[in-house]
# Entry
Amino acid sequence: MGQVIAISSGKGGTGKTTLCAAVGSCLAAEGKRVLCIDADMGLRNLDISLGMADLAPISFTDVLCQRNSLRDATPHPEIQNLYLLSAPALERPESIHHQQFGAMLEAAREQFDYCMIDSPAGIGAGFRLAVEFADRVILVAVPDPASLRDAAGTADRLRLIGRQDLRLVVNRVTSRLFRRLHWTVDDIMDETGLPLLGIIPADERVVMAAASNTALIRYSELGASLGFLHVARRLMGRRVPLLRI
# Structure
């Protein structure tokens, strides 16, 4: 039985879409069968981070309405075992039947090792849809006090709706900033009340890969790409040290 993992954040701009795409790509490269679902309706761009911007993937509402099945999910052109369901272009999250969405995810557990959901930021209807049926939730924050507080507040709301398996990834970290803030890994966990799944260094190659319509792991094996690979391996149960920034 596969796992459904929602990627979310307390506010926008933390890099959750990049993390969803990169970790999903790394899991597939490690031999796992992976389905990525863009649930950020209205701001869908998971295809860009995956290097699939020139394709026309079916949306998850096509599956909900039985116009297509999960087996029709769009395969990645270069990475085996990696598939995408996009967000619908014109529908709003309030119009999605939650139980149908949950049934689709249950079917995904049977057909894939991992189902990665790119959730909208915040705590609105789209967020609730993305996290309601997840087995675990990864919260993405950037290294500033406001973002970490937002992650802690979002974690509290997730616990109220029964989500208990929560992890934190801190994105776009620089050693200079950590030194100036006098922060340690323990400080971050204390601030958010969340176990730390990974630290991702700031890396301009993330933007360069997206601009060239290339999945990050095919663009580079260093920097952020290596950090995402470590996160993927931890999700698989391997003991991998935190990336040194």
